[in-house]
């Protein structure tokens, strides 16, 4: 035995091998048990290829424990080794492999010098299979073939029949790999009373087509029972034969996807014969389940001809009469005709349903300006066979109405956005946009094409000296009738040049705050001046907007000791703003008067309760807004510790350590942003 030649099983190998690749599986033994007649059948398998190969030489030990008798549980029941199982020598397989093709696969996986599947080298499936290691192929084929042949599994040491069983007893069977502790053993409990009949497949369905049929049945609840299925066919409902040489297996389920439904397609010799089909499952011990109820199937022929529209005639009342031809002999393969309509020969919809199959003429009303028609012959499989399209256009000389409501604007980059009120004509094809640089010159088509919506975008050049641009719109229908041109829209081009920049000329520190002085922009189209300040958070905020020619302002919100940037900027009627390069001023607020707001302050150490209490009093003549307390160990840099409201006059510090000198700096703030004198207190803890 040197090579195995299979076509069906190479497909199975592909799915099973690829499904297992890249998954870390702990080596273990999986076991199944079933009662048949007065015997208990056992089947097992090793999950990983390397350990599977090792067990083929070292073998398995099958242990048996009598766990229950006459319904009574037996405590401390002894374990009995009933078999040591290994694959039979190659020469003992020769007779079996002549009759059992699955036994051939098992023997090849055990003793074959090589284990390759013959394949078409240009086939992508074959290319992927060649990547799989030979050991994985042997393991996968062996497990599959053992599921299909219980006699082969027993010869390989992967199955066992126990006849030493009694009806009133239950047993635990344990399978372990000899001298391989790294392989987890497996066990199962069963008795003769546990016999269960195999399930009948009840949801077996067929979908007939032309000389073939698609079968489907649910497999989700059968996966623990059956490993394969067999579909049988009969022409008289009595004598059945299998439709395939090998059983049907689930090739779509893997660790990531669990198939719930199985599908299989079988050919039919002709469409006239009535066929009977049934299905049964085969379990891992080779036992066949009961066949399902037979279902009848008859092929459904496909129509071979398509309709052809011959002619059409306009009738009164916006109607058209359409005539077509279709072979009389093809009528038996179809159920009816349908009329399809489109206004653009692209997207069709069915407008007349269920036209009798012997009809060749009909009348259709509610015509559009452009009408494309097709006739569809619907066969008994529900497939549509379409004729070529025919264009039907009624006469039309009435133009659309004149467009109204035209409006638009130009931005600083020269982009123009235009819109107008949409026309409501059913046969409207679109609009044309016309433009002129002066009101009296001839308008020209901007795009030389139709605009399909009531909006348009254009661009204008600022290099042309005309300060305004003019637009008009006309509507056009599908018969090329054009409306009157809309009224003229005049749009002023925006100013592209920003105003000259205002500049600061001086500032003063006053009791109220920082007083700023500047020179305004000299442009006549300036709409307003903006005074901005960049605070300590780094963002520019508008302090004041001046629409009148003001040249000074006092910032009363500036805080003493803070550094600010001020910006004065001009904005014209077009929204353009002056440059900022020479319009900024940076200064630090300095108010010379220092106010004493604290009357007293002291720090008290309480070593028994482990905290320091700070208490203070304010001068009653000042309204304190808040108090900042900075803290440090003596000799270290102070850092902000607390921010308290002006109503608070004491605080406790528990974040302290023994044998340290602590310093606290109290800095109150008062209304009016005046500088206030701070107080420092020290305490030894």
UniProtKB/TrEMBL annotation:
InterPro entries: FN3_dom (IPR003961), FN3_sf (IPR036116), Ig-like_fold (IPR013783). SUPFAM superfamilies: Fibronectin type III. This is Fibronectin type III.
């Amino acid at each position: 035995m040197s090579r195995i030649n299979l076509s069906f099983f190479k497909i199975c190998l592909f799915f099973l091998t690829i499904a297992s690749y890249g998954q870390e599986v702990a080596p273990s033994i999986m076991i199944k048990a079933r009662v048949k007649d007065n015997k208990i059948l056992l089947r097992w398998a090793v999950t990983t290829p390397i350990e599977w190969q090792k067990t083929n030489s070292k073998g398995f030990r099958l242990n048996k424990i009598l766990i229950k008798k006459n319904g009574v549980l037996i405590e401390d029941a002894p374990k009995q080794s009933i078999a040591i199982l290994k694959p039979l020598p190659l020469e003992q397989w020769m007779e079996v492999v002549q009759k059992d093709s699955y036994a051939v696969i098992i023997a090849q996986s055990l003793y074959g010098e090589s284990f390759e599947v013959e394949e078409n080298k240009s086939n992508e499936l074959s290319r992927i299979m060649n990547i799989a290691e030979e050991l994985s192929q042997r393991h996968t084929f062996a497990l599959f073939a053992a599921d299909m042949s219980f006699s082969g599994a027993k010869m390989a040491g992967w199955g066992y029949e126990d006849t030493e069983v009694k009806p009133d007893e239950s047993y635990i069977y344990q399978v372990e790999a000899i001298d391989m502790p790294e392989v987890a053993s497996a066990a199962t409990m069963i008795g003769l009373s546990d016999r269960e009949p195999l399930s009948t497949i009840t949801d077996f369905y067929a979908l007939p087509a032309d000389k073939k049929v698609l079968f489907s049945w649910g497999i989700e609840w059968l996966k623990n029972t059956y490993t394969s299925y067999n579909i049988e066919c009969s022409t008289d409902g009595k004598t059945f034969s299998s439709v395939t040489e090998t059983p049907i297996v689930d090739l779509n389920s893997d660790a990531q996807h669990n198939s719930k439904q199985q599908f299989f397609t079988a050919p039919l010799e002709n469409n006239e014969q009535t066929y009977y089909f049934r299905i049964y499952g085969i379990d891992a011990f080779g036992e066949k389940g009961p066949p399902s109820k037979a279902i009848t199937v008859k092929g459904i022929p496909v129509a071979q001809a398509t309709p052809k529209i011959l002619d059409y005639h306009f009738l009164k009342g916006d109607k058209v009469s359409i005539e077509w031809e279709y072979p009389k002999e093809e009528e038996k393969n179809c159920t009816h005709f349908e009329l399809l309509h489109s206004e653009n020969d692209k997207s069709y919809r069915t407008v007349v349903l269920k036209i009798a199959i012997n009809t060749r003429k009909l009348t259709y009303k509610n015509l559009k300006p452009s009408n494309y028609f097709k006739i569809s012959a619907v066969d008994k499989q529900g497939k549509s066979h379409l004729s070529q399209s025919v264009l039907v256009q009624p006469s039309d000389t009435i133009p659309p109405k004149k467009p109204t409501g035209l409006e638009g604007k130009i931005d600083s980059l020269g982009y123009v956005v235009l819109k107008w009120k949409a026309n409501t004509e059913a046969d409207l094809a679109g609009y044309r946009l016309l433009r002129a640089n002066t009101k009296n010159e001839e308008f020209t088509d901007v795009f030389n094409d139709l605009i399909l919506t009531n909006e348009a975008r254009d661009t204008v050049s600022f290099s042309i000296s005309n300060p305004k641009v003019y637009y008009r719109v006309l509507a056009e229908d599908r018969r090329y009738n054009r409306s009157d041109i809309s009224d003229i829209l005049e749009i002023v081009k925006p100013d592209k040049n920003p105003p000259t920049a205002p500049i600061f000329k001086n500032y003063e520190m006053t009791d109220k705050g920082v007083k700023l002085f500047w020179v305004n922009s000299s442009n006549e189209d300036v709409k307003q001046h903006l005074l901005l300040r960049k605070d300590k958070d780094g963002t520019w905020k508008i302090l004041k907007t001046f629409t009148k020619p003001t040249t000074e302002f006092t910032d009363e919100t500036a805080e003493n000791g803070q550094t600010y940037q001020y910006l004065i900027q001009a904005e014209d009627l077009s929204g353009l703003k002056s440059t900022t390069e020479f319009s900024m001023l940076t200064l630090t607020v300095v108010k010379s008067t220092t106010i004493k707001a604290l009357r007293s302050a002291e720090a008290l150490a309480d070593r028994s309760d482990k905290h320091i209490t700070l208490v203070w009093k304010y001068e009653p003549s000042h309204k304190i807004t808040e108090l900042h307390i900075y803290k440090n160990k003596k000799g270290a840099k102070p850092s902000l510790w607390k921010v308290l409201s002006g109503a608070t006059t004491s605080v406790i510090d528990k974040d302290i350590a023994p044998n340290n000198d602590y310093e606290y700096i109290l800095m109150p703030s008062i209304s009016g942003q005046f500088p206030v004198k701070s107080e420092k207190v020290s305490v030894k803890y």
